[in-house]
Amino acid sequence: MMGQDKKVQTLFDEQQIAGRVRELADEIKAGMPRDFVVVGLMVGSFVFVADLVRELSRLGCRPAVEMIRMSSYGLGRESSRDVHLMSEFGMDLTGRDVLIIDDIVDTGHTLTFATDFIARSGAASVKSCALLDKPARREVDFIPDFVGFEIPDRFVVGYGIDFGLNYRHLPFIGTIG
Ligand code: IMP
Ligand code: MG
């Protein structure tokens, strides 16, 4: 299979992810105002957002859900650090409480940009949630409000997360060499 021939070593299996997503939904329900907007960053967070909003729903939360696309990574393993918005942003966030969701916080540039952007859009408050956090790689001070798992400096794929557009379909999270 072209571009997908690397061996993937499981880091978090489906049960581990599902269990942590359930806990995160509890933490988010307790830490967010009653009425909030989820803004997921495409494409990497799409599986996480889908699972998380359904867990929130089971807890009685009714978040609005929007996705926006930021660029930065391209096809390689290194963030370009020049993050910008690639999609139109259709939703009026004036006065809304927003929870930004991404797959991974790595150097911190993407979530820093996204948080500033949403705050400038007139949101009443902005919090962030990353499924994975690699604190060792941080280049700018950024601490997400909610984190699924802290991980070491390893390149991961699966559960929405890609390498060169591949591996997003995997139901688990793994590392590649
Ligand atoms: P940051 O701007 O460096 O914090 O990068 C965040 C983005 O880089 C995330 O949204 C991911 O899409 C991507 N990224 C960071 N680490 C990995 C990885 O291990 N595998 C795949 N993508 C990653
Ligand atoms: Mg991303």
Task: Please tell me about this protein's structure.
This protein has 177 residues and is α/β, with parallel strands linked by helices. It has a domain at 15-71 and 92-152: Rossmann fold (3-Layer(aba) Sandwich), CATH 3.40.50.2020. It is built from three helices and nine strands; from the N terminus they run E-H-E-H-E-E-E-H-E-E-E-E. It has helices at 14-31, 46-58, 109-120; strands at 8-12, 37-42, 64-71, 84-85, 97-105, 125-133, 146-150, 156-157, 173-176. It has a six-stranded mixed β-sheet with strand order 4-3-2-5-6-7, sandwiched between helices. A three-stranded antiparallel β-sheet has the order 1-9-8. Helix 3 (109-120) links the parallel strand 5 and strand 6. The longest helix has 18 residues, at 14-31. It is globular and about 45 Å long. The chain starts with 7 loop residues before the first strand and ends with a strand. The model has no long low-confidence stretch (mean pLDDT 92). Magnesium ion (MG) binds at residues 41, 44, 102-103. The site of inosinic acid (IMP) has 17 residues, from strand 5 and helix 3.
